[in-house]
Design a protein that fits this description.
heterodimer, B: 477 residues, OB fold (Dihydrolipoamide Acetyltransferase, E2P), binds zinc ion
């Protein structure tokens, strides 16, 4: 949210509100999002190409959970977030930047925090089971965008959304 | 473009512009606080808007809507009348600004040719009084947002957009509405809780909201129907490609000169191709979303003309059909613009699309000086200055602010926002290592041509491929 302090920002049709996602490799974490009050996503299993883990952490309570998409609890959940959650948080920081992830999780990272895993480590997080179905269905819906046919009809509204290389 | 033309744009605003923008600002502030309980200040602003439209065909509609809204109604028809009023004001602003361009550049512009309404038996199969569920969902969400106000937007309200987007996305005729709602919802999602933001992009969100309301009316799409389009053949000379993207959509809009096969002056046209995507597909990977448009991509990457035969055109919009296009000889867009742009015939947009944000007029500017000021760039010619929209250089091409700063010639799109004209570069000629190079936004349409950028692109991996593989495994089980 650059320019927020600029008096003209509120009056600009082209005010840039969200920085575009930064490029990252998708193989390990095909899906991560800050939505519905959670940092949530899907992490590929290291051993089985057909399996994915669904991991999430709630923004205001810092309650976390990780399970397979069939709701089988992750074996790595001891007293702390598992490696899937750490990977998820790392990729979230790559995609959105540390500042935005921290703001969403309502934490103030200290100067030594650089990665998502470090951010998680600084939280007073607790385990609380939640359903994988909600997140997994959002992932399926996300993937379904790639099945939407292309268009050759002009979409004039996209003039409000110029592509940019400038990080805001 | 000459210095005097910059001066003609920047010397003063069209008459009435400030008043018009003040009317809009009043409505935008009301939408920020929400229409549920309209306070005195907002009531005065709404009444002012109704008063300004008192001599127009919208007069009664808007006056009644304002009364009802002030009295506490949030019914969609009243909310929609406000969106219509706001769009009408911006339509007038658009026309005045485009008129300024046409005078400065002596650009001829064909008016929009409306199509006579279709006979009742040719209209959509939907029974009378029956609204498509997708439109109904979009309207309900847009009304709720207006009643709540931007400040009140929370996770639940944002999540409510999901089903409206999904329904609209499933109907090809509602693609515009779907893409708009998805883009707006993503911004709101990123800003929740909005109440905590020190300042809101209230002009922008109200723009998107009111366009959304217009697109959610039954009559919105009819006049752009392909069945009523004129058809043309001829040679297209691409000048520039403008790239638009949000998390789930990308559009490449090519501005071009069309030399009609039957002779006559060249026409200033554009053609757009787009794809749905997800947020993690960014940068040069965007081009890989368009495998079906290989002729257009090759024309951009190789800077070649294209022969099109019998393709539909409405106003300035050529509807791209890759199978009706053939690559032609190489074309230097700078030379084409120099020779043909001054005499080209432009066209006015569809009435619904008349908003300053849609103004993107191709211009060629040469022999200027570039200076860096307040973090931005400015071009100066004969003592007249124009700000550069550096933040509109796309992520999928080689054009950088550094190249713009080192440039001596620029193909650009004239833009207007918040009272200011801007130059959006789409191609430059610049001196790099004592050589003049030409760099265009579309240079990487068929793959990254710069070794360093290609390495970075390869390192990121093929996002489209990875996600398609995941979709293949998970979606069809
Ligand atoms: Zn796990």
């Amino acid at each position: 949210m650059a320019d927020v302090d600029d008096a003209g920002w509120a009056g600009r049709s082209m005010a840039r509100v969200v920085a575009p996602a930064r490029p990252r490799k998708l193989a390990k974490v095909p899906f991560v999002e800050l939505a519905e009050g959670r940092l949530q996503g899907v992490v590929s299993s290291g051993s089985d190409v057909g399996r994915v883990y669904v991991s999430s952490i709630t923004a205001n309570t810092h309650a976390y959970h990780c399970s397979t998409n069939n709701n089988r609890p992750c074996g790595g959940l001891g007293g702390a977030p598992c490696k899937h959650l750490q990977t998820l948080a790392n990729e979230a920081v790559l995609q959105y930047g540390l500042e935005r992830v921290a703001r969403y999780l309502r934490v103030e990272p200290d100067a030594s925090t650089n990665t998502g895993a470090e951010l998680l480590h600084g939280l007073n997080a607790r385990h609380e089971p939640s359903s994988a179905a909600v997140v997994f269905s959002r992932f399926l819906r996300y993937l379904s965008y790639l099945e939407v046919p292309g268009s050759t009809t002009p979409l004039p509204e996209l003039h409000w959304f110029p592509s940019t290389r400038v990080a805001s | 473009m000459r210095g005097t033309q910059i001066a003609a744009l920047t010397a003063g605003h069209p008459a009435g512009l400030t008043d018009a923008l003040n009317l809009v600002e009043g409505l935008d502030a009301a939408l920020t606080r929400g229409l549920a309980r309209v306070g005195d200040e907002d009531a005065a602003a709404l009444a002012g808007l109704a008063g300004a439209l008192a001599t127009t065909p919208l007069a009664n509609l808007v006056a009644e809507a304002v009364d009802k809204i002030i009295a506490g109604s949030g019914a969609h028809e009243y909310v929609a009348a406000l969106a219509g009023a706001r769009s009408a004001v911006f339509g007038a602003v658009h026309d005045a600004l485009l008129g300024q361009v046409d005078v400065a550049f002596e650009r001829s512009r064909a008016p929009w040719a409306p199509v006579p309404p279709a006979a009742p038996d040719e209209v959509s199969p939907a029974a009378p009084g029956e609204m498509s569920p997708a439109l109904a969902g979009a309207r309900a969400w847009l009304s709720e947002v207006a009643v709540t106000g931007w400040r009140g937007v929370n996770h639940e309200l944002v999540a409510g957009a999901g089903s409206a987007v999904e329904a609209a996305l499933a109907v090809p005729e509602l693609r515009r509405l779907a893409v708009l709602l998805d883009g707006l919802a993503a911004e709101l999602r990123a800003c929740v809780p909005v109440a905590r933001m020190p300042q809101l992009p209230q002009r922008r969100w109200a723009d998107l909201w009111s366009r959304g309301v217009l697109l959610a009316q039954e009559t919105a799409a009819g006049d752009t129907a392909l069945s009523v389009a004129e058809r043309v053949s001829g040679r297209l000379l691409p000048l520039a490609v403008d790239v638009h993207e949000h998390d789930t959509a990308v559009q490449f809009q090519v501005h071009a000169l069309l030399e009609p096969a039957g002779g006559g002056p060249p026409r200033l046209v554009r053609t757009a191709v787009g794809a749905a995507k997800v947020d993690s597909i960014v940068g040069p990977a965007l081009w890989r979303l368009l495998p079906a448009q290989s002729v257009l991509l090759a024309a951009l990457a190789q800077r070649r003309g294209v022969l099109v035969s019998d393709v539909p055109i409405r106003g300035a919009d050529v509807y791209w059909q890759d199978d009706r296009a053939r690559l032609d000889e190489p074309v230097d867009p700078f030379a084409a613009a120099r020779v043909l742009l001054p005499g080209a015939l432009a066209a006015a947009p569809h009435p619904v699309d008349r908003h300053p944000a849609g103004i993107a007029e191709p211009v060629l500017i040469e022999g200027y000086a570039v200076s860096a000021q307040e973090g931005g760039l400015t071009v100066e010619l004969d003592g007249h200055r124009l700000a550069v929209a550096v933040d509109r250089l796309p992520s999928c091409g080689p054009l950088t602010p550094e190249l713009v700063a080192a440039s001596t010639a620029c193909l650009g799109l004239l833009r207007w926002d918040a009272g200011q004209w801007l130059l959006q570069p789409v191609a430059v000629q610049a001196t790099v290592k004592r050589k003049i190079v030409a760099v265009h936004t579309g240079d990487w349409a068929c793959g990254v041509t710069d070794a360093k950028a290609a390495k970075a692109d390869a390192k990121a991996g093929d996002a489209v491929l990875v996600l398609r593989e995941r979709a293949g495994r998970l979606l069809r089980r």
